[in-house]
């Protein structure tokens, strides 16, 4: 009975998740139902809030190293890693509110990181372009590789072809490296002397490479050709017929659906164009086909969005100032929220909820209702940070199945983590 209830309510539910430890289908159903109720309600008794300090500089990036599985066998744990201008990478237990480990001081400030939860590995890069792999359990250094210039982007890929890392160099080169040994698989110059933005598709078969507000059209690379390079042929790519691209996102439920925000032909208006990508083989040649399937103009009254995320197969979320707006890929506006008093700084989107962080020192939690033709987003509650006397706002937000964590910037040039760990009774 409870197995059928689980599979009916949560289509992503898999048997291996449920039989971990001592949990049964009934325990899983009751615990997950309680957890989702508490995450939607957000009452003070639903979660434990902790302020977690330790870094002596600003936290530039954070990512979960714990897997996002729903497990209720008493061994579930939410762990995040952070990098900071204080030249360290650290791991934190959000439930206990404690530091698990801290790396030795590094030669330069660490500016970015990505994680491989399945492998329990963390990859960091400093402001000079030095990339390092760390063991998530104890902080031991595994390998390093130095880019010729500082890095503009990192993307972690863990797929059927194995784990690999994509690193964009400020000179316009795109490196593909093995994980964990950081050996070069391929190197390609995507845009000469330009900073690159990287965005891998949900299935990791495609990587979108762009330069901010450039008249150079963004490119899409076929990932297989980057991790299996040919000595005779360059990696397979195509240039999209648009210019001055500023933001992009993939539709999570469609492996090859890409939504790109850019300027129209006269450069005056913002447009969102959606492409469906495919690889066609003709004789021994593989070509990328990018078919435009939708396009619409953003309203003139809307300030240029600075954040963009996808949901489902055809919904995008755009953040403009302190406003969150939902559109379909054909331009139908589904909702607009103005819950924050100051600009939104970050946005987390997953199949269950949306969380925004703001300089008003609050996190806003929204929940999806998928019973309609298009998903409906319901605004639920705020999670408040510390005192405005000491803090200047939230700069980042992330979430997993059990917790929400934000980076709270302090006025003295430091940051702390503020975690919200949701309670579940295992009885």
From TrEMBL:
Keyword Transcription regulation among record annotations: no
Q: Which UniProt keywords apply?
A: Repeat, WD repeat
Does the entry feature the keyword Repeat, yes or no?
Answer: yes
Task: Tell me what this protein is called.
Answer: Uncharacterized protein
The species this protein belongs to is Loxodonta africana (African elephant)
